[in-house]
Amino acid sequence: MTEQKATLGVGMIGYAFMGAVHSHAWRSAHRFFDLPLTPRMQVVCGRDATRVAEAATRFGWEESATDWRDVIARDDVDLVDVCTPGDTHAEIAIAALEAGKHVLCEKPLANSVAEAERMAAAAAVAAERGVRTMVGFTYRRVPAIALAKKLVADGRLGELHHVRAQYLQDWLADPEAPLSWRLDKSKAGSGALGDIGAHVIDLTQHITGDRIQEVSGMLETFVKERPVAEDSSGLSATAGAGRGPVTVDDTALFLARFAGGAVGSFEATRFATGRKNAIRIEINGSKGSLAFDFEDMNVLHFHDATLPDTEAGFRRIVVTEPEHQWVSGWWPPGHGLGYEHGFTHQVVDLVRALGDDTDPAPNFADGLQVQRVLAAVETSSDTRTWQEIPV
Amino acid sequence: MTEQKATLGVGMIGYAFMGAVHSHAWRSAHRFFDLPLTPRMQVVCGRDATRVAEAATRFGWEESATDWRDVIARDDVDLVDVCTPGDTHAEIAIAALEAGKHVLCEKPLANSVAEAERMAAAAAVAAERGVRTMVGFTYRRVPAIALAKKLVADGRLGELHHVRAQYLQDWLADPEAPLSWRLDKSKAGSGALGDIGAHVIDLTQHITGDRIQEVSGMLETFVKERPVAEDSSGLSATAGAGRGPVTVDDTALFLARFAGGAVGSFEATRFATGRKNAIRIEINGSKGSLAFDFEDMNVLHFHDATLPDTEAGFRRIVVTEPEHQWVSGWWPPGHGLGYEHGFTHQVVDLVRALGDDTDPAPNFADGLQVQRVLAAVETSSDTRTWQEIPV
Amino acid sequence: MTEQKATLGVGMIGYAFMGAVHSHAWRSAHRFFDLPLTPRMQVVCGRDATRVAEAATRFGWEESATDWRDVIARDDVDLVDVCTPGDTHAEIAIAALEAGKHVLCEKPLANSVAEAERMAAAAAVAAERGVRTMVGFTYRRVPAIALAKKLVADGRLGELHHVRAQYLQDWLADPEAPLSWRLDKSKAGSGALGDIGAHVIDLTQHITGDRIQEVSGMLETFVKERPVAEDSSGLSATAGAGRGPVTVDDTALFLARFAGGAVGSFEATRFATGRKNAIRIEINGSKGSLAFDFEDMNVLHFHDATLPDTEAGFRRIVVTEPEHQWVSGWWPPGHGLGYEHGFTHQVVDLVRALGDDTDPAPNFADGLQVQRVLAAVETSSDTRTWQEIPV
Amino acid sequence: MTEQKATLGVGMIGYAFMGAVHSHAWRSAHRFFDLPLTPRMQVVCGRDATRVAEAATRFGWEESATDWRDVIARDDVDLVDVCTPGDTHAEIAIAALEAGKHVLCEKPLANSVAEAERMAAAAAVAAERGVRTMVGFTYRRVPAIALAKKLVADGRLGELHHVRAQYLQDWLADPEAPLSWRLDKSKAGSGALGDIGAHVIDLTQHITGDRIQEVSGMLETFVKERPVAEDSSGLSATAGAGRGPVTVDDTALFLARFAGGAVGSFEATRFATGRKNAIRIEINGSKGSLAFDFEDMNVLHFHDATLPDTEAGFRRIVVTEPEHQWVSGWWPPGHGLGYEHGFTHQVVDLVRALGDDTDPAPNFADGLQVQRVLAAVETSSDTRTWQEIPV
């Protein structure tokens, strides 16, 4: 007879896009991986009682709630999963940590460095009591990215010279695409920079094991006004106005120097027509190179420059062998994974860290460092100067 | 308050690779799609009581059982999902149908045309009582394949001339890869032909809406003896022998004529070194062409020859827009799906058909037709003649 | 001062497409490569005196002529380059050989095995007098193909199991594309089979170092009648008829067994909409695989299966390093070659063989062997049986 | 009888890599294209009498010379083709213009803005007398680039938002690669910036029809010292020194704003391991996008965002149809061109402009503008500020 495992009670705040995929991960992780604790989906929380109750049923949560403070107060909740927009992260996460709950928080960690600093400080205090934090940079959990990191760590690329990273989407390329809260700086903090740029900042630092030291950035808002969205409460209040201002960046570009000497070129945009979710990363070192594109997420291209020149070339590694990280939980070689698997792997790694009583990665301190890079890019764009990132 | 939906009690026979992915589908389908009946994972069945009980826990089945006859006899089981090897399909499926259970059966439908004919006959009888059958040709449920079918059906390819289909794997390329039951004709029926060739036969007929009329085929076993596998009961019985015979094909190739006039070239192999699960389909018509490779499963390449020559080219359609079949249940554009999604879509389509009281596709009659093509290829290879496929 | 090299007087018969590219090769080879003899472009021959004189001026020939017998009779002509349609190859080539001229003949060698046998016999006789022959299978001279052959010869693919070869064009996909002499069997001998299928037969035998032993083939003519071309003398004579019959194959497919045990799947077509000149070859062996597509002609994809599974993958070798065959005559790495370079390399190899007094490859005997494969495919298609190729 | 065309006497200064490919172009252009003047390869000039005489024979020049002033003085020279390193461009080109000779000058136009200004001024004076200038930005003459420009000009991309351009090579990635004059600032002016960065500056401005308005740049020299090359006269004079300093940039990166509102990200490097001559350009507009990579030079990827979302995708246009610029001079569809064809097209366009008495493009004024962008990037890197480019 199989031993009954301890459980991990989870409460999730928010139930939109991120809520759906987080729910899937909580439902699925222990079905495919051996976990020290079995997640128990206790409660999902949202402001609209009817809709959150429907979400609970659909996503498989035992109960629903409308006040996140109630969730935090529950004894049967060990971990709070924060899937709300960025402007609420700090308040919820800090309260949860103070209540002794582990916190998994969606990225970017916050809408400002100040908020992120408070969150990281709260996490540091909580960590002394064994309470853990994690930030949802899930793209780290794509097996091809894990292989990329391993190849760099194993020295297969030699000394790193170039980092080239782009996160390209196109959902704003149409100037008639309507306003949403994501285009309102007071809600979203920033535009492409924080929403998707944060991912490639984290990914490149993660893969290289290095950190961005200074940046020269440029933000641009191509379409300054857009049609007001019918279901966007805040803006539609503007009497009689058919259009409203876009107050965040449509694109962010920056040059970077890494502490280890590599140079970087970064770009995040929602205007790259035809690119849907193209997270593209290239790294060139003295002994080899890597190339990745999330639009072909099960593949990593690796050039081994130590092979004879006549035989060398970028090789298309289909990262589905069981030896690759997380893959043995899934299917035979060539049977690829999809977007949500990164979230399942995130739960796996988080629950295993909790079981081992070790710190998950990336934690709130890591999230704060990314926030500082984001802020440096914004300041650089405003002041037209290079900006160093404080260590 | 949400209305309580009727449930569909499911009993699954087998719990290996196919059992794992079918379980995932039964667990997940109603989380992402509106279904007329909510699947209830009643019981999973296998011969080893301990292991099947563990599988039940891991996969989320309420109970386990060791005799499939008990499963069929249960009142709380409405549908039997057959995930066992091919030599047991006929017995289980026919019994289930006779007991009034809907049956979802893994492919190929059977190990012989005779068995498949009995199954199809039983299905026809059962259908008169509203009992439904489905065969697990899940690759039909990849959104890019659905788009391919739609483009052909909409006339976008014009008159079809060429079908080129390959299912390439490489797990037997190493001559020291051990024997398994899959290489034993008495268990598996055939080798690459039935295991993977069946998929491309079904896919090309599905996409074209046409059927294969005649074939000229060639089977080959490159490695005639292999090391006996330690955990392969049947063969390891051979006293003192370190190697045993491979009694199925390593590869199957055939030329084909479709009823509508197109010519086809087919290949299935486990010796295509470097190709892990490459289901590659190309179709050329008078007005356009399609190309698909499962190793990049979220993409369909479409050439529209009605565009000006100077602008025409194969276009890489990332099939993740919400308008594509099944996609609106998942993630935003560019956030790709993986292997198991096809199985989830299979459950969706099956349950919806049951809810509508319509016939799912492909049903056992369709499975029989594929079986006839497989048999014709074998006969053709044996007799070195062209073989017609009976309608 | 540089020593004056001996010259090689060349007379070319025909001045259309092949004439243009052959002229370029004769003009260019000694500009990029050290040759033992400097080609001298003495005379070009065609039936229309005005047009052939214009061609001489444009292409850089010293004189023009209207009777190929006059060309063969000239003392200043050492080599006859036959660029005419296939139905004239035998007569011209045999006469030239008998006159003691080396002969470079376009492919396919002839329109029938009987003709090809006579040509090969004449070549054998001539060879005893040091007179050499070559057949224009120029795609052998693409550096990526030379690398493919080298990798196989070096054992990097291990034992060969699969050969997959397609030559795909689309210029007949439009049913209103007019008739030309290429669609008239009396002139062209065959359709896609001889015109382009011959190339992939030669290429696969060349790369593998093996030969096709038996075939099962299928020819098809999708569009049986086409508009008569206004400038097609023979057919437009048909009184009042707006359309005429297509008497050759639109496509040829065949399965093959190689003498060494590999199985092959071949296809040649002019109906693969969107494929312009796609010569696609894949070879799978026990230790590795190759893939080539002429539409990306400077690249060879190589999978080395002896690498660890976690790192293996098809690598995209850009075949532009100076160590690759012929490449040092050209540009730095990454500066790719084009279609005509194969013809220049053909002249290089031919002239060097003449300088060394060795036999060029492929010679007329090799051309005859390819002709026998073509004939076997036709017979197989007619008789619906497997056909062996005589050695 | 064909009319005898007027000739254009050409004198070429320099006979290394650029000399070889320019010679090929002068030899070949009138063989494939109708030109108003037939080029006559009168004289090639270099300092070493023996070697330049050999080059004349090999490349097909009638005579050789050792003093470029003698070339300029010849009556039978109508055009001077400057293929020397950048530090000699100004002196030779200005003298040639003053002597009334048309000048084709390799890129970059000069090693400094001051030199380039003097050259452009001389060109302006000469133009009044009908004397023409051209700068050798040959990549403009790749048919896929011409198609890119046409699509933008036709409004197919809508309003342009993003320009992404990289010129990636890897020949310096090995830190033991020896010094050459190209790594000596006094000879080469700059490193990757001027040598290859100049090309992508020209290409992006050419394709977009826009100009770069301001830049923020960063230069980096990864390997500061290298082994002295044995055949490098200047540096090997350093007594006893085994290594010498690299005085130019290994890589140059910059952000840019175009006058029309697009933002740009540029990169030029000789350290992108595995990329041999990868000129990669992507442009995103409101209605469509383009992507090009010179490593697949016959292809342009075009995304037409005005198509339905479910069908849109980057299409791989094989730019070999006769309707594309320059292509009708060559081969049938699918028979690709190579690196040197751009140079042949350059001669075609130059000679046609001379025949029409119109100004070729790009002329010295265009070359000066590129020089100003290069200088702005250098200044920006030195001062860590944004720099405007004077109009």
From TrEMBL, chains A, B, C, D:
Read off the SUPFAM superfamilies from this record: Glyceraldehyde-3-phosphate dehydrogenase-like, C-terminal domain, NAD(P)-binding Rossmann-fold domains
Report the Gene3D superfamilies cross-referenced here: Dihydrodipicolinate Reductase, domain 2, NAD(P)-binding Rossmann-like Domain
Q: Where is the Gfo/Idh/MocA-like oxidoreductase N-terminal domain?
A: 9-137
Signal sequence: where? none
Entry GO MF terms: nucleotide binding; oxidoreductase activity
The alphabetical list of record keywords is: Oxidoreductase
**Xref: InterPro entries:** Gfo/Idh/MocA-like_OxRdtase_N (IPR000683), Gfo/Idh/MocA_oxidrdct_glycsds (IPR050463), GFO_IDH_MocA-like_dom (IPR055170), NAD(P)-bd_dom_sf (IPR036291)
Q: Which residues form the GFO/IDH/MocA-like oxidoreductase domain?
A: 147-290
Task: Name the PANTHER family on file.
Answer: BCDNA.GH03377 (PTHR43818)
Q: What is the name of this protein?
A: Putative dehydrogenase
Taxonomic placement: Bacteria, Bacillati, Actinomycetota, Actinomycetes, Propionibacteriales
